[in-house]
Design goal:
- The chain is mainly beta.
- The chain has one domain.
- The protein has 2 helices and 10 strands; from the N terminus they run βββαββαβββββ.
């Protein structure tokens, strides 16, 4: 099964005193899970959600999906004949007690996979990029 966490991302076009928050899209974080255990959501949310004076990302919804789940964003890119490549939604995976965030792009001209260790507040470290 896939746990899907849909988020809203906002940027502050003002300042700390006079903020002007503008919605700029979001992501669907996709996590492979073994069961319908709600505690995994409580564990993951602090790693995704954050807010500072410049930007914010928070969860809009959570759902359980089939193993072959694709987001609307991924499907739309596959169906558009003018697209030469697919940007995949971020995947999350826990490896040796550390949450990893992976993003991927696949194209006929080349592909890449980027991986980070994920910390509280969507802080990232240990960036690795593989280009094919």
């Amino acid at each position: 099964m896939k746990l899907v966490i849909s988020t809203q991302y906002l940027e502050n076009y003002g300042d700390e005193i006079n903020p002007h928050w503008k919605p700029k899209g979001g992501s669907e974080y996709i996590v492979s899970v073994d069961s319908n255990d709600a505690s995994i959501v409580k564990e993951i949310l602090p790693f995704i959600e954050y807010r500072n004076e410049y930007s914010e990302e928070y969860a809009l919804g959570v759902s359980m999906e089939a193993d072959d789940y694709e987001s609307w964003f991924e499907k739309a890119q596959k169906e558009d004949p003018s697209e030469d490549g697919i940007h995949f939604e971020p995947r999350l995976e826990k490896v040796d007690g550390v949450w990893k965030k992976t993003t991927k792009f696949e194209s006929s001209r080349g592909s890449w996979i980027r991986t980070w260790d994920l910390g509280i507040g969507n802080e990232t470290s240990n960036f690795v990029e593989k280009v094919y």
